[in-house]
From TrEMBL:
Keywords: Signal. It comes from Rhodoplanes tepidamans. This is Uncharacterized protein. The lineage of its organism: Bacteria, Pseudomonadati, Pseudomonadota, Alphaproteobacteria, Hyphomicrobiales. InterPro entries: TAT_signal. The keyword Signal applies. The keyword Signal applies.
Amino acid sequence: MVARRQTLVLAGVVAAVASAGQAADMAPPLSVAMASGGWAATFASEARWFSWSGTRGTPTTVAANGGAGTQLYVPAALQLVGLPGDDLKVELLARGGWVTARQSTVGLAGEVATPTDTVASGTFT
């Protein structure tokens, strides 16, 4: 079985793709920070592309003519930090993302596209 991990990372106008057969992160993820009126917002995201193929089915008892699959994973995070008063600091964080995956193994073909688990947290100091 040949496993390939390709990473597509967007940072401003720069796009990089790892060559086939490599498994390496190329550049830092997209990160944007803004500040206004005592508040700062930071958004971070990246796109990760994975693909695989093999000469035998997966699981190996399904097909003798091989199988293949792909996955696109796009995690994202948003953080807000503010000082609404002299004695109060507010920190809010939300993380989530999107994933789409496809498997084309004979007898087990399928596809899914869905948001990932989303979490949110906050701290008031």
